Amino acid sequence: MLLEGKTLLVTGASAGIGRATAIGAARHGADVAINFHSDDASAASCIAEIESLGRKGVAIKGDVADPDTAKDFVARATEALGRVDVFVNNAGICPFHAFLDMPVETLERTFRVNLHGAYYMVQAAANQMVKQGQGGAIVAVSSISALVGGEFQTHYTPTKAGVHSLMQSAAIALGKHGIRCNSVLPGTILTDINKDDLADEGKRNYMEKRIPLGRLGAPDDLAGPIIFLASDLAAYVTGAALLVDGGMFVNLQ
Q: Residue 29, by phi and psi: left (phi above 0), alpha (psi -120 to 50) or beta?
C-alpha cells in the first residue's frame, strides 16, 4: 500500500499506461482522478475498477492540448477528492508519418498534446501542490524515444525529449516546495499508439529480438515504476529518468 491516503491524478487514463497506473495506484491505496479525451465507456470502466478496490475515482473529460483543460482537470479533481498528492502526466499521441512530407497539422497536434499539454498540466498540478503546502510528486511518461531517433517519429521524439527535460527543470523549480519531479522512459509497450504498427508479425519479432528480456512491454509494466517514484520510497529521488524498456536501450548496438 505505497500510496495509502494519497490522491493521484493521471492524464490519458482511459486506456494503456494511464489506465494501468490509475488502477495500480488504487490497489496501493490511492483515490484517483483520471483525465480522458473521448472514450467515455473505457473511462467509466476504469473508474468502476478503481471503486471495486474500495477507492474513490472520478473521470474528467478534456483535451490536454487546450490549456484550459489543465486548470479544469486539477480544480475538479481537487473538488471531488480534496487534494492533489501525486500527478502523473501520461497523455500522448504518435501518428506515425514520414519526415519529408509531414503535415503541419500532424506536427502541431503532436506538439500540443505531448509537450504543451504536459507543460500546462504539470504547471496546474504544481500550483495546487504549492497551495496545499505539503509537497508532492510529479511523474511524467517520457519515452526511450527521448534518447534515440525514429524515422517515422520526427514529430514525436522531440516532444518526449522535451517532457524529460521539463521534469529536470521542474525538479529544480519545485524542490523548494517539497515537490519531486521524475520521468519514466518506456521502451516498446503494446498500447493503442503502436498496435497498428506492431500488427506486422515480422516487425514485432524484430522488436522482441532487440529486447534482452525477450518480450514487448505491457502497460502494467509501467505502473510499478510510476508508483514507486510517486511513493515515499523515492523520497530523495527527483530530476531522475528511469528506463522501463526490458533492456532495449543498452542493447541498441
A: left
